[in-house]
Specification:
It is built from 19 helices and 14 strands. It has about 475 residues and is α/β, with parallel strands linked by helices. Helix 1 packs across helix 3, helix 5 runs parallel beside helix 6 and helix 10 packs parallel to helix 13. It is elongated and about 85 Å long. The structure holds uridine-5'-diphosphate-glucuronic acid (UGA). The site of uridine-5'-diphosphate-glucuronic acid has 21 residues, from helix 10.
């Protein structure tokens, strides 16, 4: 009995938890996924993934069918059965505030603590403000002491760094494993759970609870800063000319800087980077360190200004085209004033992409969806197509016109916006698309199209971070 492989539970079966559960069964463990949402549990039990993630449906189905992976809404069942409880519930931004909402983590830990009647390990994976793990550890001890429950329960923190779209790969072959502990029992058990990663020489960082919590938010804050850094330079090249992609390539050759995450465009979104930089600022302010993360307010501002830029550029491009059509000398290029927005009224605009990034159906804090909605609000006739994101976007902004194909989206368009760099959009045929639109005008919000190749087919393609000269 002592030497059998640990049984694992995963509390919270959203993006992180469902992926972790399926990947842990792939590593050979028996896994029980737990969630308070009965519908989610019913779908997962049938082998269905409730969101879009390449490779995950196959993995889930295999292990659900083999019986190695099961799901339940009963946390007490997990408490009795599992040796290790991973907690991957959400920590969203509080409504109307910048801090993280910890009610789900608190509730998950409280219900676990009150139900475990044996030796066990609780391993937090959710992204939390520094200090949360130590507070939760004390709470677990208190709840258990008050209830007089048998068994030793230790709490560890093991942050998750997976990216949407690469969730399975990032979980099975992570860049590093970070394990924060405040005791001696967690580490050997987790070394056993992650034996395959250790055998593959994955860096193993064994540390305290606070460092483990901070590594996660530091990584996301750095990534967000990198994106806003290049996007700030976009504001310069948009004003004076120059090529933002070449600039990124050139500085990226310096290994200390690195080229990745220096793609200029409409900015970052999603359920992690935006809320994590806000939660970090809120947390350090609570700690009395008001100035420490103030630069992240700039990172956030630069990021949000990219959306203004796309809307301004749409106004400029349409105005210039209409003036040219009337035979007037076009004289735009400066910042568009409020009245310029008139040109958007009734304009047929195709929006390609509404998810926050490709290979995901996630529209949380999506720059693309925000831009589409702003154009609609300004009176434009916006037609949206996203390979996976239409349904989630429609749930948020039902009044936009969502269509099932690229062709329907661009048909009759006066202006086309590429806002999420799905492969299908990168590979568009300028001649075929050109035959459908009303005007061959495109704003490339992700700098993925070959401007010269498109120009050969009569297109004007304006990339973000490039000067627009009408
Ligand atoms: C991010 C981190 O990359 C993961 O390591 C982390 O685990 C995750 O958050 C999380 O905290 O759960 P994710 O939100 O899936 O992952 O997406 P990213 O690939 O980081 O992209 C974030 C946003 O930045 C996207 O909107 C993307 O379009 C944008 N981006 C990315 C750029 O605008 N430019 C770039 O060069 C790179």
């Amino acid at each position: 009995e002592q030497d059998r492989a640990p049984r694992l539970s995963v509390i919270g079966t959203g993006y992180l938890g469902a992926t972790h559960a399926a990947c842990m069964s792939e590593l050979g463990f028996e896994v029980l996924g737990v969630d308070v949402d009965p519908e989610k549990i019913a779908r997962l039990s049938r082998g269905e993934v409730p969101f879009h993630e390449p490779g995950l449906p196959e993995l889930l189905r295999t292990h659900v069918e083999s019986g190695r992976l099961r799901f339940t809404t009963d946390v007490a069942e997990a408490a009795r059965w599992a040796d290790v409880h991973f907690v991957g519930v959400g920590t969203p931004q509080k409504v109307g505030e910048s801090g993280a909402d910890l009610r789900y983590v608190d509730a998950a830990l409280a219900s676990l603590a009150a139900a475990i009647d044996r030796d066990a390990l609780i391993v937090g994976k959710s992204t939390v403000p520094v200090g949360t793990a130590r507070r939760l550890a004390a709470m677990v001890r208190r709840v258990r002491a008050e209830a007089g429950l048998p068994g030793e329960v230790e709490l560890a923190w093991n942050p998750e760094f997976l990216r949407e779209g690469f969730a399975v790969k990032d979980t099975l072959t992570p860049d590093r494993l970070v394990i924060g502990t405040d005791g001696t029992r967690a580490e050997p058990v987790l070394r056993r759970v992650y034996a395959r990663q250790l055998a593959a020489d994955t860096p193993w960082i064994s540390t305290d609870l606070e460092t483990a919590e901070l590594v996660k938010v530091a990584a996301n804050a750095f990534l967000a800063t990198k994106i806003s850094f290049i996007n700030a330079f976009s504001e310069i090249t948009e004003a004076v000319g120059g090529d933002i992609g070449t600039l990124a390539d050139a500085i990226g050759h310096d290994a200390r800087i690195g080229r990745r995450f220096l793609n200029a465009g409409v900015g970052f979104g999603g359920g992690c980077l935006p809320k994590d930089i806000r939660a970090l600022q809120a947390r350090v302010s609570e700690l009395g360190l008001d100035r420490t993360m103030r630069f992240l307010a700039e990172v956030d501002d630069i990021n949000l200004r990219r959306r203004d830029r796309v809307v301004d550029l749409a106004v400029q491009v349409l105005s210039a085209a209409r003036d040219a059509g009337r035979g007037e000398a076009a004289a735009y290029g400066g910042k568009t004033t409020g009245s310029g927005v008139e040109v958007l009224r009734g304009a047929r605009i195709a929006v390609l992409g509404v998810t926050f990034k490709p290979d995901s159906d996630d529209v949380r804090d999506s720059p693309a969806l925000d831009v589409a909605n702003r154009l609609y609000t300004a009176g434009a006739d916006v037609r949206v197509h996203d390979p996976e994101g239409n349904a989630n976007a429609a749930a948020r902004f039902p009044r936009l016109d969502y269509v099932d194909s690229l062709e329907e989206a661009v048909e009759g368009a006066e202006l086309t916006l590429l806002l999420t760099e799905w492969q299908a959009f990168r590979e568009m045929d300028p001649a075929a698309v050109g035959a459908l639109v009303d005007a061959r005008l495109l704003i490339d919000g992700r700098n993925v199209l070959d401007v010269a190749a498109w120009a050969e087919h009569g297109w004007t393609v304006v990339g973000l971070g490039h000067r627009f000269d009408p």
